[in-house]
Amino acid sequence: MCDDPNIPLTVARALGEYRALLDEHGVTWGEDPIFYVRSMTTDAYLMGTTGFWEVCYGMLGTRYPGAPFEELRDRLDELDMDEVVRGVLAGRVLDNLAALRLTDGETALRARTQAVLDGRPLRTTLLVDSARSEPATVLVDGRAHVVGPGGARLIKITSWSEVVADGVPIDLSPLTRPAPAARLRVRAGFPCKWSVYGEHGQGWYPEGAPDRHDYHVLPYFHGDDLVLDVPAETLTVRASRGMEYDSAQVTVTPAPGGETLVELTPERLYDAAALGWYGGDMHVHLNWAGDMVGTPGLAGIMQHGEDLHVLNLVAGNVSSERVYDSEALEHWAGKDLPWSDASHVARIGVEYRNDLLGHLYAFGVSAPPSRFHTGFLGTADWPPNSVACEELRGLGAVTGYSHPFHTPFADTDAPDKALRWGRNCSSREIVADAALGLVDTLDVLSQTSITATAAVYRRLIGAGNRVAVTAGTDAMVSFARRGNQSNPPGWARVYARVDGPLTAVSFAEAVRRGHTFGTTGPWLELSVAGHGPGATLDLSPGERVTITARSVGPEVERLEIRTADGVLAGGSPGELTAELVVGAPTYVVAVATGGPHERSFTGEVYAHTSPVYLDVDGRHVARAEDVGWCLEWLDALEALLREEGVFETTRQFADHLALIDRAREVYRARLT
Question: NCBIfam families, from UniProt (predicted)?
Fold first, then answer.
């Protein structure tokens, strides 16, 4: 494992700078306060809740009655995020947030009582929620916080703080209760993800481990044979190890003053490496602002605890010029990170970012690129992302678009639906870059809308683009509590069939060839006449092929075999077989789906293979309907750039038009 005291001096200095930014600015680290930066301050309090966007647009709709959605969208930066939290929670209190309700002439504290050991203080946040028609002032440890009429404020406190409202001290004793101390040792025989929690889901951690929570709001830490201080009360202990294992769980009541051993061994559901398949996460941030500073050592512990074969830690900016972890990229570019071994490879890669055109990951770069982002702080949306694709490719990288689409989107929807809503990080240039062969993959599996991205992906491959399925979670080591972005890396993975031993080079080559499937957990196989994803079969009209799809995982509810024309066969999980008489060129993919499940660390269960391509008489698939759809997309992209693009010269805009025209020529040629 990587030992943080031995990291390079340049990296250590950068981590020190990040700690200073966190101390000075809090969770945003002083980044330019565009909306997704400002929303960082709310994320920890809204895990496991819904209605965020409804509350945002409801508040703006009240302020601007009758305003169209586009105008409300452009006014999101006006919102008071503390009031948004209050609106979303709608009276609920959380384990990490107490509420002080202020009404006319009355104050009331509400909280989920937390256990404390040996009289230690509890660190938490106080939501001051005012229903008064006049401003109110609350003193916290001598500092005045003014809350406007009907307003709300989030204030960091401890259970030892002095809180005064209306000149009267507030009794904070409901925040905590003393508990007798005990010790717990957890052991599995190999690194695991552990959750130890008691009443109200209150988590307990080994000394020095960060207070992390996953998508299901379960506390967690990684390692093996670890000791932690806990209350001598009934606790749940849970062990898991990434998606290839099930979880093991036990209830225990440790004896006061003693040490209790809990041994749990998660059962393996499938062994991908034994079949030559290795799972990777192509998009993970070590640091990207956050409520803690991510270190290489912690990333290594998480990778091994999740048994994640390949980890791509990307250097990238947030909303300003600073590129986080660029020092680590400078030092380790082209090299495995120190904790890598025969079955676990970690590299520092790149996230190239433009919020209007889309974000790219790069895995396997041999050196830092000359540019990491465009379009921030009012700078030009230039050059096109295609220029970054070419440079990153020249540095030896596999490239792909990350967290592609955020809004609901179906196979039958028009392209315009995916291009709406301004600078929302959607992968809008993908249709041009794919046509020109400038990107290798699309992260069909990510923290954004998987079904929307899968729909766009099938249009792309149906139009003749050879793009592989990958997965990039956008997990962030520097966020301890932020929905699926504080999940451990690898909660979604791309599995690649590797020839020979696992290395960064062999994994990258397997991804380039499309020998992949992406998944939130299920194992998914596809065989077309004995050939797997990435293969191309050259057939004659009328030939018959047998197709088999297999899934493993208790969370799968439906299995499908799809071609360019839609669903060929569908049924229950396990195994599905179909016969296809080949006419026009097509592709075959397998898809496994399911509803919310404890093994899925996002809102749905999903797995999707890269295609097996079925050429006919040497002709590739280029379905007229899909090609026409891509041409419509390019028209909509041009209109979007005219309306919302930022350019300093006409030449900059002309470069985008030239890229789009080159892509149009490719698609039109496929029609003939």
Answer: CehA_McbA_metalo (NF038032)
